[in-house]
Write a structure and sequence with these properties.
Elements lengths: L1 H13 L3 E3 L11 E3 L1 H20 L4 E3 L8 H7 L1 H4 L1 E6 L6 E3 L40 E4 L2 E4 L9 E4 L4 H6 L1 H8 L5 E10 L14 E11 L4 H18 L7 E5 L11 E9 L3 E12 L1 H10 L5 E3 L4 E3 L2 E8 H12 E7 L5 E7 L10 E5 L7 H12 L4 E3 L5 H11 L3 E5 L3 H4 L1 E6 L5 E5 L3 H8 L1
Parallel strand pairs: 3-9, 19-20, 19-21
Antiparallel strand pairs: 1-2, 4-5, 4-6, 7-8, 9-10, 10-16, 11-12, 12-13, 13-16, 14-15, 17-18, 21-22, 22-23
Helix pairs in contact: 2-9, 3-8
């Protein structure tokens, strides 16, 4: 499994998907930059999530809230008090770890009011760095990044980078409900950056301090929350499967009582079979009850109830929250799509080819246009074909090297279709379309190419 992750991280860097940030200066731990293919893959994941959860529904609207919000928001939400992880330090090498990440140790999720009471550091756990078995006692470490607004760096001007996107949807609930004229049940969706000062980030882009979330707060009438919770658990599981993720690699996991966050009535995780951790969280779907709206109402003094016109009564809605990470989704889709096949070469030999079998909605590049050679006779038609396809889809033009090598390059980045212009094109006005997964080839008239690709993409 370590070899698989090494191959994937190597491919990601070599092909411009993701690589260490500030690398010429030695990098910054757990900071990653997304290259030309990475930004397209992320954009496609975001688009697929937004289309499914906002565009194709009439009961969800969007929001883009500020990253830096009033500190009162985080006081009301409980983040200032209980958004912590248990931190321990090895007494020999002085490396610091999350206590619940040491092998064999279990602790509730951060945000639980009794985080440090169930951690037994006398169980002789070994330091992953030096093998020592002596640690400091666990202490709570707040995960929020703190900064200051304005010219004076004092507590009166302290602000925080948001640790989640959810709170913006709660504090803007009444404004959005009134402006959109939505009745319950309805949701507010947001995609944006969040920041957490993780003690032990790592495993490529799985756990980072700066990450992107796709969150939905779905407001429902109390008493209907359990039904809607089940609905969103099933809906979110289907989203991954519909985008090509193999169902044997994803599962649902119910949170135990001692795992539940302080606001949660029930939480179910969608987990993926990651190579480095067996099963790891991909997305959480929580029943947050009416905790958040009541908290913000209490701290702000503003009425955050909903007026039910049919029942002629006011109440605080319950909230179902599917919360996913763009970066973790990207990693899971990347791992799931990765394969090494045996394929015939141009010389008739059998050779290995690396292929990313992305769902066509997610593939960073949809079409590659490959003139058989750089011959100047082929250039006008090749460029004309490229001009046609790039208007509709993200496309690449590649005329460097043997055609077999160029096919392999496109397989390795997951391009579904390659279009080859050859010398027969000059006579019959047709091109060869090669499909990624089957490697089958078909001659198509240039005038029909756009329609042919559109049907398949």
């Amino acid at each position: 499994m370590a070899d698989l992750m090494e191959a994937i991280t190597s491919l990601a860097k070599r092909r411009g998907i993701a690589f260490p940030s500030s690398e010429i200066y030695g990098g910054l731990r757990s900071s990653w930059d997304y290259g030309p293919l990475g930004v397209e893959l992320k954009r496609n994941i975001r688009h697929a999530w937004w289309k499914r959860n906002v565009q194709l529904r009439d009961d969800v609207v969007g929001l883009e809230a500020a990253v830096i919000m009033s500190p009162k928001v985080w006081e009301a939400s409980g983040h200032l008090e209980v958004f912590t992880d248990p931190l321990v330090e090895c007494l020999k090498c002085h490396r610091r770890f999350r206590a619940d990440h040491l092998p064999g140790v279990h602790a509730p999720q951060s945000g639980h009011e009794d985080d440090d009471t169930t951690i037994d550091m006398h169980a002789k756990q070994k330091c992953p760095n030096c093998g020592n078995d002596a640690f400091t006692d666990p202490r709570n470490f707040n995960l929020m990044f703190k900064t200051h607004m304005g010219p004076v760096e004092d507590e009166a001007n302290a602000v925080y980078l948001r640790p989640e996107t959810a709170q913006g949807m709660f504090v803007d609930f009444t404004t959005i409900q009134a402006s959109s004229r939505k009745r319950l049940p309805f949701g507010i969706a947001q995609i944006g950056k969040s920041f957490r000062n993780e003690i032990t980030p790592g495993n490529f882009i799985f756990r980072t301090r700066e990450f992107e979330q796709m969150e939905l707060e779905f407001f429902v009438e109390p008493g209907t929350d359990e039904k809607w919770h089940e609905y969103w658990i099933e809906e979110r599981f289907r989203w991954y499967a519909d985008l090509g993720m193999r169902t044997e690699n994803i599962r649902l996991r119910e949170h135990e009582t001692d795992e539940l966050s302080h606001y949660s009535k029930r939480t179910v995780d969608i987990e993926y079979r990651f190579p480095f951790t067996d099963w790891g969280e991909l997305e959480g779907i929580a029943n947050r009850t009416d905790f958040d709206l009541k908290q913000h109402e209490r701290f702000s003094g503003q009425d955050l109830t909903y007026f039910d016109q049919e029942k002629e009564e006011r109440y605080h809605p319950y909230v179902i929250e599917p919360a996913a990470g763009v970066d973790r989704a990207l990693l899971a889709f990347l791992i799931d799509a990765y394969a090494v096949d045996e394929a015939p070469s141009a010389k008739g030999n059998v050779e290995k080819r690396t292929v990313l079998r992305f769902h066509r909605d997610l593939a960073p590049i949809k079409v590659a246009v490959l003139p058989l050679s750089r011959n100047e006779q082929l250039a006008p038609d090749a460029r004309a074909v490229f001009d046609v396809v790039k208007e509709r889809w993200m496309a690449q033009f590649d005329d460097a090297g043997a055609i077999g090598r160029r096919y392999r390059r496109q397989d390795e980045i997951g391009t579904p279709f390659c279009v080859t212009i050859d010398f027969d094109t000059l006579e019959d006005r047709q091109v060869t379309v090669r499909e990624r997964d089957t490697m089958s080839q078909e001659r198509i008239p240039i005038e029909n190419l756009a329609a042919y690709l559109a049907e398949r993409l």
